[in-house]
Description:
Layout lengths: L1 H14 L23 H10 L9 H13 L7
Amino acid sequence: MTESLQKQFLELQKNSTQQMGKGVILAAITVQGKISTKWEYVIYIQIYGPPIRGQFDPVYLELIREGIADGSIPIPS
């Protein structure tokens, strides 16, 4: 997305007859790493969306855990 915005700004700057301000600075960073999470949280977000105020509903999480345990909710291998 950062690259796309940079290209758009450059294109606007080329086509502009007025001098543009330099107030916006875009930054991009590339990182390599590994993220691990429990499948119950991934499934929760897929079904219910992001948790409200950053707190997962414990009732829904328990239902998902039970579904994973009894095999009614499959998890990728």
